[in-house]
Amino acid sequence: MHLTHITKITLSILFLICLFQLPYGYYEFVRFVALVGFAYLAYDAYRGGNQRVTFIYVALAILFQPLIKIALGRTLWNIVDVIVAIGLLASLFLGTKDNNDTISTQ
């Protein structure tokens, strides 16, 4: 399993756990891990030449960063957490295939 897959799965789990009533420190921890995780995913997408996905991961890193908090309220943050978790998990199954999987036609 690639580090990219592990990062997406880990972030998804952390975001879904945010749906429970937990101490504020957990949410701060998730914000920091999300910043690092999305920064890595952005770098990986950039290295792979996918500018659109790079932009999405940079935007998510900015949204979740712990330094300047974006106050959305608990309900809206829960919705964002679920949407991002589903998006990350879906990207595991809908991601690009290896070049070896493509059939070349002449």
Question: Number of DSSP helices?
Answer: 4
Tell me how many strands there are: 0
Detail the poorly predicted runs.
97-106
Distance between the termini: 34 Å
Question: What is the arithmetic mean of pLDDT?
Answer: 86
Task: Describe the protein's architecture and organization.
- The protein is mostly helical and 106 residues long.
- It has 4 helices and no strands.
- It has helices at residues 3-17, 24-47, 51-64, 74-94.
- α2 runs antiparallel to α3 (51-64).
- It is globular and about 35 Å long.
Briefly summarize what is shown.
By secondary structure, the chain is an all-alpha fold. It is 70% helix and 0% strand.
Q: Which helices and strands, and how do they pair?
A:
Elements: H1 3-17, H2 24-47, H3 51-64, H4 74-94
Helix pairs in contact: 1-2, 1-4, 2-3
Structural key phrases:
106 residues, 4 helices, mainly alpha, 0% strand
